[in-house]
From TrEMBL:
InterPro entries the UniProt entry points to: GmrSD_C
Gene3D superfamilies listed in its UniProt record: 1.10.30.50
Identification of the protein by name: HNH endonuclease family protein
Domain GmrSD restriction endonucleases C-terminal: 102-230
Lineage start: Bacteria, Bacillati, Actinomycetota, Actinomycetes, Pseudonocardiales
Organism: Umezawaea endophytica
A GO molecular function held by the record: endonuclease activity
Keyword Hydrolase applies: yes
Keyword line: Endonuclease, Hydrolase, Nuclease
Record has Hydrolase as a keyword: yes
Length: 238
């Protein structure tokens, strides 16, 4: 096969594959940008919650966080339905008593062109530039609120010994909450920075700053691998 024949053969094979799908009544395979959570192009999103430490402060705070092992999950129960333990309280609370629960507060803070539901605080529509992916969303149904430091990680790095009131406050702390794409939030789950980082590499510094600030605020411990991953992310700060 000559060099000129190889590209032609590949193009012909691709065309025949697409034709076969169409004849079978199926749509052609999606060969777009790949699954959520994969490495992608860097998209700058200059947005962190108020109170997030700057890079220099975050680096200093990280160095001071106590070292800890992987704490036990005994007693952890996030579910609040049917009398479950609900150790971090009922989501989402109206912490400041202004009539807006924390989910609505975060959506209104992180989105632009926000339209509220008539006579209510809840957000009906708006535009979100997701810091984790760099994608733009206009449907609130596709947006979830992420705990940057996951609640399960809070539990195993100190929160198991807190009062219920302190845990509820931490779970609803606006400094630890970001509006993001639902799919990427699900892919993150309870993972820590050594296990997961935002697929948008340009947000690594900001993510680490938020994470360290929250861990410092509540005096939580970090594991060696977790600290190393945070150090690496903070090293990307400009």
């Amino acid at each position: 096969m000559t060099p000129l024949e190889a590209p032609m053969t590949r193009r012909t094979a691709a065309a025949l594959t697409a034709l076969a799908f169409l004849l079978a009544g199926c749509d052609p395979l999606d060969v777009g940008t790949g699954p959520v959570g994969g490495a992608g192009a860097a998209v700058t999103v200059d947005r962190v919650p108020d109170g997030t430490p700057d890079a220099a402060t975050a680096k200093a705070e990280l160095a001071q966080l106590p070292e800890g092992g992987l704490g036990k999950m005994d007693g952890y129960e996030r579910d609040c339905d049917n009398g479950a333990a609900c150790v971090f309280g009922q989501p989402w609370l109206d912490v400041d008593g202004d009539g807006c629960d924390q989910r609505s507060q975060v959506l209104a803070r992180d989105m632009t062109d926000v339209v509220r539901k008539e006579g209510r605080c809840a957000v009906a529509s708006g535009t979100l530039l997701d810091p984790y992916t760099g994608d733009t969303l206009t449907s609130t149904s596709k947006i979830q609120i992420d705990h940057v430091v996951p609640l399960a990680e809070m539990w195993r790095s100190g929160a198991a010994a807190w009062t219920p009131e302190r845990r509820a406050a931490a779970a609803n702390d606006l400094n630890n909450l970001l509006a993001v794409t639902g799919k990427v939030n699900q892919s993150k789950g309870d993972k820590t920075p050594d296990e997961w980082m935002p697929p948008n590499p340009a947000y690594a510094c900001s993510y680490a700053r938020v994470y360290v600030g929250v861990k410092t605020e509540y005096g939580m411990s970090v594991r060696a691998a977790e600290r190393a991953a945070l150090d690496k992310s903070l090293a990307t700060c400009g």
